[in-house]
């Protein structure tokens, strides 16, 4: 296999748009768990990942927010930080950040041209073509190892952990935020099976921080850690936290860890964000205590408070109040329901939702439907969307047992028209919420914030 450098006249890709189209054009190869193709790609490129420090973050929900807390504090403390996350909310380049800034378009083009011939050649071998996510991961590793050289990379898994392509790295700390029923078609349909996949990121001797609560999931993680002689820092055992106060501007909590106790404040809303912040704080304590990271209390406090993650219980419009939340599985819906009651007193709750076709929507609705006064069912602008009419059938089946007696249901497949309905029906004392797949959240957020360069996608 040959390697191409630069973006000269013979480079196969000539513009940023062409590079993104090429990478997204690999989507039909689907999600193919396994490390063979990424291992081969890295080998051909000189194993750039071996020159980097990683914090590897897995979990069902809360990965992105945890990455945001870690990135914010490390930046505040003066470190150069790479952050690799997915899916993106606004633009393809969001996935690959360095010091809070997206990868430059010309750099992405250059690195895509490095990868293009290798990917094309591999497609002709028994390994088959690398997938979109594999190529994105390879591009991230090249970017951090050869272009910007961060002190540490905050590294989010794509799906699962054990067979996820991000698992090619050996981190300095592993994080498992929580375990829930998501991607059961790939990860298994029990908490134990899913926990086993997430626990696959635990490496020999590398400490693992987790906020997992289910006893069966905790058992799986502890057994895996014991096998590879890794130390587990479990929320509720090795560290703990409790809320001190909260209002519409944020919440504060007390953290008690193995090394010390401290108070922290975060602006991110939602009860579950305390879990993510406390887990991130435990990671930072390990970096400070065992890995010679210089993190003073003021930087930790400012970093946690200033952390932000788009589309996670995010109030984007103040009049009327409209909140976006990418809850798309039962655990996310349960957290969303608790947070709505906890943070925003309201007269009526108007909920707009759109889903993909492969999720546990019945369990999702069981958590959120009892709170809703007006339900607007719509469809995300995405190939794997669920028809709003199908979603209606699930709602009607659940309605007699759990919904409010006067629940109003509107079916509007066009998400832009559905958003107009939500805005027009949400009065000053009401709360409007848009929830469901991040593909919907991305479009709605761009529309509400008048962002013209939104690309949204996986």
Describe the structure.
The chain is built from 15 helices and 17 strands. With 458 residues, it is an alpha/beta fold. The longest helix has 20 residues, at 271-290.
Provide key terms for this protein.
458 residues, alpha/beta, eight-stranded mixed beta sheet, six-stranded mixed beta sheet, 15 helices, 18% strand
How is the secondary structure organized here?
Layout: H1 16-24, H2 36-44, E1 54-58, H3 63-76, E2 81-84, E3 96-98, E4 101-102, H4 105-122, H5 132-148, E5 152-156, E6 173-176, H6 184-187, H7 191-198, E7 208-210, H8 215-227, E8 232-234, E9 240-247, E10 250-256, E11 261-266, H9 271-290, H10 297-306, E12 314-317, E13 322-325, H11 330-343, E14 349-354, H12 361-368, E15 374-379, H13 388-402, E16 408-414, H14 415-425, E17 431-436, H15 438-448
Parallel strand pairs: 1-5, 1-6, 2-5, 6-7, 7-8, 13-17, 14-15, 14-17, 15-16
Antiparallel strand pairs: 2-3, 3-4, 9-10, 10-11, 12-13
Helix pairs in contact: 1-4, 2-5, 3-9, 3-10, 4-5, 7-8, 11-12, 12-13
């Amino acid at each position: 296999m040959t390697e191409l450098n630069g973006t000269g006249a013979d480079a196969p890709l000539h513009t940023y748009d062409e590079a993104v189209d090429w990478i997204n054009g690999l989507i039909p190869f689907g999600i193919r768990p396994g490390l063979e193709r990424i291992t081969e790609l890295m080998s051909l490129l000189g194993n750039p990942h071996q020159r980097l420090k990683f914090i590897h973050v897995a979990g069902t929900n809360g990965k992105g927010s945890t990455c945001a807390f870690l990135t914010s504090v490390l930046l505040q403390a003066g470190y150069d930080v790479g952050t690799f996350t997915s899916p993106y909310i606004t633009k393809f380049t969001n996935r690959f950040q360095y010091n809070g800034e997206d990868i430059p378009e010309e750099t992405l083009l250059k690195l895509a041209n490095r990868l293009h011939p290798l990917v094309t050649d591999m497609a002709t071998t028994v390994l088959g073509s690398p997938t979109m996510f594999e190529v994105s991961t390879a591009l991230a590793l090249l970017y951090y190892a050869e272009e910007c050289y961060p002190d540490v990379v905050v590294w989010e898994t794509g799906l699962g952990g054990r067979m996820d392509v991000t698992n090619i790295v050996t981190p300095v700390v592993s994080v498992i935020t929580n375990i829930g029923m998501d991607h059961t078609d790939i990860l298994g349909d029990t908490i134990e099976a899913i926990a086993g996949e997430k626990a696959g990121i635990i490496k020999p001797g590398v400490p693992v921080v987790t906020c997992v609560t289910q006893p069966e999931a905790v058992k799986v993680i502890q057994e895996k850690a014991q096998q590879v002689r890794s130390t587990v820092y479990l929320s509720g055992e090795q560290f703990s936290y409790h809320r001190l106060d909260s209002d519409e501007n944020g919440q504060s909590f007390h953290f008690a860890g193995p090394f010390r106790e401290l108070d922290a404040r975060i602006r991110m809303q939602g009860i579950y964000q305390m879990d993510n912040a406390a887990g991130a704080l435990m990671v930072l304590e390990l970096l400070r205590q065992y890995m010679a990271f210089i993190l003073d209390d003021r930087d930790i406090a400012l970093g946690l408070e200033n952390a932000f993650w788009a589309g996670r219980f995010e109030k984007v419009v103040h009049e009327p109040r409209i909140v976006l939340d990418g809850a798309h599985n039962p655990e996310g819906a349960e957290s969303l329901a608790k947070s709505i009651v906890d943070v925003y007193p309201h007269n009526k709750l108007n909920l707009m939702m759109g889903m993909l076709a492969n999720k546990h929507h019945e369990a999702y609705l069981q958590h959120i439907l009892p709170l809703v006064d007006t339900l607007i069912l719509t469809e995300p602008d995405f190939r794997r969307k669920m028809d709003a009419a199908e979603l209606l059938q699930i709602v009607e089946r659940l309605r007699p047992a759990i919904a409010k007696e006067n629940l109003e249901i509107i079916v509007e497949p066009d998400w832009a028209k559905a958003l107009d309905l939500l805005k027009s029906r949400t009065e000053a004392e009401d709360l409007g919420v848009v929830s469901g797949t991040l593909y919907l959240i991305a479009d709605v957020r761009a529309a509400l914030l008048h962002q013209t360069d939104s690309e949204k996608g996986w």
